[in-house]
Design goal:
Layout: H1 6-10, H2 13-34, H3 42-88, E1 93-96, E2 102-106, E3 111-117, E4 120-127, E5 130-137, H4 140-146, E6 152-156, E7 159-162, E8 168-172, E9 175-179, E10 188-189, H5 192-203
Antiparallel strand pairs: 1-2, 3-4, 3-7, 4-5, 6-7, 8-9, 9-10
Helix pairs in contact: 2-3
Length: about 200
C-alpha cells in the first residue's frame, strides 16, 4: 500500500481504523457526486454526510472493541499457560507465618494437605518415616492465594489439599471424598463450593 508492505501496514490498529474510515468517506462521496438526483437540498446533503460519518464512527468503535476483546483473550491464554508452567516448576513449598518468617520448606511429593485451626494452619507432610504436622500462625486465605498457581487447591472451608497426592475421588454416603490410598491419612471431604474446580483439575 503506497510502497509499504500491506502486512506491516495493517499490523497497526490505527492504520486499520484510518483505512476503514477512508473507505466509508469515499463511499459517501460517491453517493453524493455520482447520484446527485438523490440529493435535493444542501440540508439533505449534510444529513447524508452526517449519516456516513456516524457509520464510520460506529465501525471504528466496533473495531476497537473487537481488538480489546482479542487482547483480553490473549492475556487469559497467557495466564493459563504461565500457571501450568509455574505449577510444573515448583520444587519446594515454602510456608511463612503472618509476620513473613519462613517456618517450613517441603518438597511437593512430601506435602499432603493443610488444615485450618482457628487463627493457625496445620501443615501435614511426610517427614522421615511417618506423617508429621506443623502448626503455623497464618490464614487459609493467605496460603490459598500464595499457592494459587500450584496443585495446592482449596477443597473445603477447613482444608487445602495437594491434588498431586490424591489417588482417588469417591463418594461416601453422598459426599465427595479425596482418598490418598494411605491408612495413615484420613480421607478429606470436598464441599459443594469447591467440587467443580476439583473435578476440572482431574479432568485435565
Amino acid at each position: 500500500m503506497f510502497g509499504i508492505d500491506s502486512k506491516t501496514y495493517f499490523k497497526s490498529r490505527h492504520n486499520v481504523i484510518l483505512t476503514i474510515l477512508g473507505l466509508i468517506a469515499l463511499s459517501g462521496l460517491c453517493v453524493l457526486f455520482f447520484k446527485p438526483y438523490r440529493i435535493y437540498t444542501w440540508v439533505e446533503a449534510k444529513q447524508t454526510m452526517l449519516l456516513w460519518a456516524e457509520i464510520g464512527v460506529l465501525s471504528a468503535m466496533v473495531l476497537v472493541m473487537a481488538h480489546k476483546l482479542k487482547s483480553k483473550h490473549d492475556q487469559i491464554a497467557t495466564l493459563h499457560a504461565n500457571s501450568d508452567e509455574a505449577a510444573a516448576q515448583v520444587q519446594m513449598f515454602n510456608f511463612y507465618d503472618e509476620r513473613g518468617e519462613l517456618k517450613l520448606s517441603v518438597k511437593p511429593e512430601n506435602l499432603y494437605y493443610l488444615e485450618s485451626a482457628d487463627n493457625y494452619v496445620q501443615i501435614h507432610y511426610w517427614g522421615g518415616s511417618k506423617m508429621q504436622a506443623l502448626l503455623i500462625r497464618n490464614s487459609m486465605k493467605n496460603i490459598e492465594w500464595r499457592f494459587r498457581e500450584t496443585p495446592l487447591i482449596r477443597c473445603h472451608r477447613s482444608y487445602i489439599v495437594n491434588l498431586e497426592k490424591v489417588q482417588m475421588v469417591k463418594r461416601i454416603d453422598g459426599e465427595m471424598m479425596l482418598d490418598f490410598n494411605d491408612e495413615q491419612i484420613a480421607n478429606l471431604p470436598v464441599s459443594k463450593a469447591y467440587a467443580d474446580q476439583i473435578m476440572i483439575y482431574f479432568a485435565k
